[in-house]
UniProtKB/TrEMBL annotation:
One of its GO terms (cellular component) is ribosome. NCBIfam families: L28. This is Large ribosomal subunit protein bL28. Pfam families: Ribosomal_L28. It comes from Pseudolysinimonas kribbensis. Belongs to the bacterial ribosomal protein bL28 family. InterPro entries: Ribosomal_bL28, Ribosomal_bL28/bL31-like_sf, Ribosomal_bL28_bact-type, Ribosomal_bL28_sf.
């Protein structure tokens, strides 16, 4: 599963992990992406989306219907 949130568009960040001796190694900061299933009343079916923890809060605030409408308007498949 790709580490991309379908609601907020959060993608991995890149940087360095720095040891005590200050050596730098490449690393990746992945968003907290989870696969969640929601029932969407306007579609009359369940949809499964990859959503980050912040995306879950957006769904709670705006409602699943509005969020799914935005995802479909972008042309993403649900």
């Amino acid at each position: 599963m790709a580490a991309v949130c379908q609601v907020t568009g959060a993608v991995p960040g890149f940087g360095h992990s720095i040891s005590f001796s200050h050596r730098r190694n490449k690393r990746r900061f992945d968003p907290n992406v989870q696969r969640k299933t929601y029932y969407v009343p306007s579609l009359r079916r369940k949809v499964t989306i990859n959503v980050s923890a912040r995306g879950i809060k957006v769904i709670d605030a705006r409602g699943i219907d509005a969020v799914v409408r935005d995802i479909l308007a972008r042309g993403e498949k649900i």
